[in-house]
Amino acid sequence: MLRVAAPPPPAWDALLPPEVRRLPDELARIDAYLDDERFITPWRALFAARLGRPSIPVQTLLRLLYLKHRYQLGYRTLCREVADSISWRRFCHIPLDQPVPHPTTLVKLVGRAGPKTIEQLNHALLAKLAGERVLRCRKLRIDTTVVEADIDHPTDADLLEHAVRTLGGLVRRYIPCGKPSCRCQADPPTLHGPYWQYSHKADGKTITRRLTPDQAQLYQQWIANRRRIHQLLAQMQQVSAQAAEILLRDADIADPRPIHTPARAR
Protein backbone atom coordinates (compact mmCIF):
# COMPACT_ATOMS: atom_id res chain seq x y z
CA MET A 1 0.00 0.00 0.00
CA LEU A 2 1.35 3.38 -0.98
CA ARG A 3 2.07 5.96 1.69
CA VAL A 4 2.86 9.43 0.43
CA ALA A 5 3.19 11.54 3.57
CA ALA A 6 5.17 10.65 6.66
CA PRO A 7 3.43 10.45 10.06
CA PRO A 8 3.18 13.78 11.89
CA PRO A 9 5.79 14.52 14.55
CA PRO A 10 4.84 13.86 18.18
CA ALA A 11 3.41 16.64 20.31
CA TRP A 12 6.58 17.06 22.30
CA ASP A 13 8.51 17.87 19.10
CA ALA A 14 7.41 21.50 19.46
CA LEU A 15 9.29 21.66 22.79
CA LEU A 16 12.66 21.24 21.09
CA PRO A 17 14.83 24.37 20.81
CA PRO A 18 14.44 26.33 17.54
CA GLU A 19 18.06 25.72 16.54
CA VAL A 20 17.44 21.97 16.72
CA ARG A 21 14.22 22.12 14.67
CA ARG A 22 15.78 24.37 12.02
CA LEU A 23 17.21 22.62 8.96
CA PRO A 24 20.51 23.68 7.35
CA ASP A 25 20.01 26.00 4.40
CA GLU A 26 20.77 23.40 1.73
CA LEU A 27 18.48 20.78 3.22
CA ALA A 28 15.72 23.34 3.73
CA ARG A 29 15.84 24.30 0.03
CA ILE A 30 15.85 20.67 -1.11
CA ASP A 31 13.04 19.81 1.32
CA ALA A 32 10.83 22.51 -0.18
CA TYR A 33 11.84 21.52 -3.70
CA LEU A 34 10.83 17.87 -3.25
CA ASP A 35 7.33 18.81 -2.05
CA ASP A 36 5.99 18.48 -5.57
CA GLU A 37 3.41 16.02 -6.84
CA ARG A 38 5.40 15.32 -10.01
CA PHE A 39 8.07 13.53 -7.90
CA ILE A 40 5.42 11.33 -6.28
CA THR A 41 3.47 10.36 -9.40
CA PRO A 42 6.03 7.80 -10.72
CA TRP A 43 5.75 5.82 -7.47
CA ARG A 44 1.96 5.47 -7.60
CA ALA A 45 2.12 2.84 -10.33
CA LEU A 46 4.32 0.60 -8.15
CA PHE A 47 1.96 0.24 -5.19
CA ALA A 48 -1.71 -0.46 -4.64
CA ALA A 49 -3.73 2.37 -3.19
CA ARG A 50 -5.27 0.34 -0.34
CA LEU A 51 -3.98 -3.25 -0.41
CA GLY A 52 -0.78 -4.66 1.04
CA ARG A 53 1.61 -3.65 3.76
CA PRO A 54 2.21 0.11 4.01
CA SER A 55 5.32 1.27 2.18
CA ILE A 56 7.94 3.74 3.30
CA PRO A 57 6.44 7.23 2.79
CA VAL A 58 7.47 8.54 -0.60
CA GLN A 59 8.50 11.84 0.98
CA THR A 60 10.92 9.94 3.22
CA LEU A 61 12.22 7.72 0.42
CA LEU A 62 12.99 10.64 -1.91
CA ARG A 63 14.96 12.46 0.76
CA LEU A 64 16.87 9.35 1.79
CA LEU A 65 17.90 8.80 -1.82
CA TYR A 66 18.96 12.44 -2.11
CA LEU A 67 21.26 12.10 0.93
CA LYS A 68 22.66 8.86 -0.44
CA HIS A 69 23.65 10.40 -3.78
CA ARG A 70 24.63 13.77 -2.32
CA TYR A 71 27.21 12.32 0.06
CA GLN A 72 28.02 9.10 -1.87
CA LEU A 73 26.92 6.82 0.97
CA GLY A 74 26.04 3.16 0.98
CA TYR A 75 22.60 2.11 2.17
CA ARG A 76 23.87 0.80 5.51
CA THR A 77 25.96 3.92 6.19
CA LEU A 78 23.06 6.13 5.11
CA CYS A 79 20.63 4.58 7.58
CA ARG A 80 23.19 4.75 10.39
CA GLU A 81 23.96 8.43 9.75
CA VAL A 82 20.28 9.38 9.50
CA ALA A 83 19.49 7.57 12.74
CA ASP A 84 22.29 9.49 14.47
CA SER A 85 21.37 12.98 13.17
CA ILE A 86 18.40 15.06 14.29
CA SER A 87 18.65 17.38 11.26
CA TRP A 88 18.78 14.48 8.82
CA ARG A 89 15.83 12.85 10.57
CA ARG A 90 13.80 16.02 10.28
CA PHE A 91 14.81 16.42 6.64
CA CYS A 92 13.66 12.85 5.87
CA HIS A 93 10.42 13.37 7.85
CA ILE A 94 11.30 10.61 10.31
CA PRO A 95 10.13 11.48 13.86
CA LEU A 96 12.54 10.93 16.70
CA ASP A 97 10.36 8.17 18.16
CA GLN A 98 10.20 6.23 14.85
CA PRO A 99 12.86 3.83 13.48
CA VAL A 100 14.84 4.58 10.35
CA PRO A 101 14.01 2.24 7.42
CA HIS A 102 16.23 -0.81 7.14
CA PRO A 103 18.91 -0.75 4.40
CA THR A 104 17.55 -3.92 2.74
CA THR A 105 14.12 -2.26 2.50
CA LEU A 106 15.63 0.65 0.58
CA VAL A 107 17.51 -1.72 -1.72
CA LYS A 108 14.31 -3.65 -2.51
CA LEU A 109 12.34 -0.47 -3.18
CA VAL A 110 14.97 0.94 -5.54
CA GLY A 111 15.22 -2.42 -7.30
CA ARG A 112 11.45 -2.58 -7.61
CA ALA A 113 11.31 0.90 -9.10
CA GLY A 114 13.88 0.07 -11.76
CA PRO A 115 15.44 2.39 -14.36
CA LYS A 116 12.04 3.44 -15.74
CA THR A 117 10.97 5.15 -12.50
CA ILE A 118 14.38 6.82 -12.14
CA GLU A 119 14.07 8.12 -15.70
CA GLN A 120 10.61 9.51 -14.93
CA LEU A 121 11.98 11.28 -11.85
CA ASN A 122 14.81 12.77 -13.91
CA HIS A 123 12.33 14.04 -16.52
CA ALA A 124 10.17 15.52 -13.76
CA LEU A 125 13.20 17.28 -12.29
CA LEU A 126 14.23 18.69 -15.67
CA ALA A 127 10.68 19.89 -16.33
CA LYS A 128 10.56 21.63 -12.94
CA LEU A 129 13.96 23.26 -13.45
CA ALA A 130 13.02 24.44 -16.94
CA GLY A 131 9.62 25.70 -15.75
CA GLU A 132 11.25 27.80 -13.04
CA ARG A 133 13.96 28.98 -15.48
CA VAL A 134 16.68 27.51 -13.32
CA LEU A 135 17.80 25.43 -16.30
CA ARG A 136 17.70 26.87 -19.80
CA CYS A 137 17.01 24.26 -22.47
CA ARG A 138 18.38 25.13 -25.87
CA LYS A 139 18.12 23.49 -29.26
CA LEU A 140 20.98 21.37 -30.52
CA ARG A 141 21.78 21.19 -34.22
CA ILE A 142 23.74 18.14 -35.41
CA ASP A 143 25.56 17.98 -38.74
CA THR A 144 25.35 14.42 -40.12
CA THR A 145 27.37 15.07 -43.29
CA VAL A 146 29.52 12.05 -44.17
CA VAL A 147 33.15 12.92 -44.93
CA GLU A 148 35.47 10.40 -46.57
CA ALA A 149 38.55 9.63 -44.50
CA ASP A 150 41.30 7.05 -44.31
CA ILE A 151 40.82 4.15 -41.92
CA ASP A 152 43.23 4.18 -39.00
CA HIS A 153 43.73 0.50 -38.26
CA PRO A 154 44.67 -0.11 -34.61
CA THR A 155 48.14 -1.30 -33.80
CA ASP A 156 49.15 -3.55 -30.92
CA ALA A 157 50.61 -0.57 -29.07
CA ASP A 158 47.37 1.43 -29.49
CA LEU A 159 45.27 -1.48 -28.21
CA LEU A 160 47.56 -1.91 -25.20
CA GLU A 161 47.42 1.81 -24.43
CA HIS A 162 43.62 1.81 -24.67
CA ALA A 163 43.40 -1.22 -22.37
CA VAL A 164 45.64 0.46 -19.81
CA ARG A 165 43.63 3.70 -20.00
CA THR A 166 40.42 1.85 -19.08
CA LEU A 167 41.85 1.16 -15.63
CA GLY A 168 40.42 4.55 -14.64
CA GLY A 169 41.44 6.94 -11.88
CA LEU A 170 41.50 7.05 -8.09
CA VAL A 171 40.26 10.05 -6.08
CA ARG A 172 40.56 10.77 -2.35
CA ARG A 173 37.71 12.94 -1.05
CA TYR A 174 36.98 14.82 2.16
CA ILE A 175 33.34 15.82 2.49
CA PRO A 176 31.09 17.64 4.98
CA CYS A 177 27.81 16.33 6.31
CA GLY A 178 24.57 18.16 7.06
CA LYS A 179 24.80 18.07 10.85
CA PRO A 180 24.98 21.67 12.15
CA SER A 181 26.85 20.66 15.34
CA CYS A 182 29.42 18.48 13.56
CA ARG A 183 33.09 19.38 13.43
CA CYS A 184 32.86 19.65 9.63
CA GLN A 185 30.69 22.78 10.08
CA ALA A 186 33.23 24.52 12.35
CA ASP A 187 35.55 27.33 11.32
CA PRO A 188 37.98 26.06 10.14
CA PRO A 189 36.09 22.86 9.28
CA THR A 190 37.41 19.34 9.85
CA LEU A 191 35.93 17.34 7.00
CA HIS A 192 35.08 13.64 7.08
CA GLY A 193 37.36 11.27 5.28
CA PRO A 194 39.35 10.31 3.47
CA TYR A 195 36.87 8.47 1.24
CA TRP A 196 38.34 6.70 -1.77
CA GLN A 197 36.51 6.61 -5.10
CA TYR A 198 37.48 4.76 -8.25
CA SER A 199 36.07 5.84 -11.64
CA HIS A 200 36.41 4.26 -15.06
CA LYS A 201 34.68 4.21 -18.43
CA ALA A 202 32.49 1.27 -19.50
CA ASP A 203 30.30 1.30 -22.62
CA GLY A 204 30.56 5.07 -22.84
CA LYS A 205 29.45 5.60 -19.24
CA THR A 206 31.44 6.67 -16.20
CA ILE A 207 31.17 4.14 -13.36
CA THR A 208 32.18 5.16 -9.84
CA ARG A 209 32.55 2.92 -6.80
CA ARG A 210 33.63 3.40 -3.21
CA LEU A 211 36.79 1.65 -2.05
CA THR A 212 38.15 0.61 1.30
CA PRO A 213 41.66 1.83 2.21
CA ASP A 214 43.10 -1.62 1.39
CA GLN A 215 41.40 -1.66 -1.99
CA ALA A 216 42.59 1.90 -2.67
CA GLN A 217 46.17 0.81 -1.96
CA LEU A 218 45.87 -1.95 -4.55
CA TYR A 219 44.50 0.47 -7.13
CA GLN A 220 47.34 2.89 -6.42
CA GLN A 221 49.81 0.12 -7.29
CA TRP A 222 47.90 -0.74 -10.46
CA ILE A 223 47.72 2.90 -11.54
CA ALA A 224 51.47 3.26 -10.91
CA ASN A 225 52.00 0.24 -13.17
CA ARG A 226 49.80 1.91 -15.79
CA ARG A 227 51.95 5.05 -15.71
CA ARG A 228 55.06 2.89 -16.09
CA ILE A 229 53.51 1.21 -19.15
CA HIS A 230 52.76 4.64 -20.63
CA GLN A 231 56.41 5.59 -20.18
CA LEU A 232 57.56 2.35 -21.82
CA LEU A 233 55.17 2.91 -24.74
CA ALA A 234 56.54 6.41 -25.26
CA GLN A 235 60.11 5.07 -25.23
CA MET A 236 59.15 2.30 -27.68
CA GLN A 237 57.61 4.86 -30.06
CA GLN A 238 60.74 7.00 -29.86
CA VAL A 239 63.02 4.03 -30.53
CA SER A 240 60.78 2.90 -33.40
CA ALA A 241 60.96 6.36 -34.99
CA GLN A 242 64.77 6.38 -34.72
CA ALA A 243 64.98 2.87 -36.18
CA ALA A 244 62.72 3.89 -39.07
CA GLU A 245 64.99 6.85 -39.88
CA ILE A 246 68.04 4.58 -39.90
CA LEU A 247 66.37 1.99 -42.15
CA LEU A 248 65.21 4.66 -44.57
CA ARG A 249 68.68 6.21 -44.70
CA ASP A 250 70.26 2.81 -45.36
CA ALA A 251 67.70 2.16 -48.11
CA ASP A 252 68.60 5.48 -49.78
CA ILE A 253 72.29 4.56 -49.71
CA ALA A 254 71.65 1.10 -51.21
CA ASP A 255 69.37 2.44 -53.95
CA PRO A 256 70.27 6.08 -54.71
CA ARG A 257 67.79 6.39 -57.58
CA PRO A 258 65.47 9.33 -57.05
CA ILE A 259 61.83 8.68 -56.43
CA HIS A 260 59.57 10.45 -58.92
CA THR A 261 56.09 11.39 -57.90
CA PRO A 262 53.45 12.43 -60.46
CA ALA A 263 52.79 16.14 -60.56
CA ARG A 264 49.37 17.34 -59.50
CA ALA A 265 47.13 18.70 -62.17
CA ARG A 266 46.51 22.40 -61.87
Description:
The chain has 266 residues and is mainly alpha-helical. It folds into 2 domains: 11-131, no CATH class; 156-254, no CATH class. Helices cover 48% and strands 9% of the residues. It has helices at 18-21, 25-34, 41-44, 58-70, 75-84, 86-91, 103-131, 156-165, 213-254; strands at 169-175, 192-202, 205-211. A 3-stranded antiparallel β-sheet has the order 1-2-3, covered by helices on one side. β2 and β3 form a beta hairpin. α5 packs across α7 (103-131) and α8 (156-165) runs antiparallel to α9. The radius of gyration is 29 Å and the shape is elongated. The mean pLDDT is 79.
In angstroms, what separates the terminal alpha carbons?
A: 81 Å
> Strand portion, in percent?
5-15%
In which order are the strands of the major sheet placed?
1-2-3
- The structural class is mainly alpha
CA-atom Rg in angstroms: 29 Å
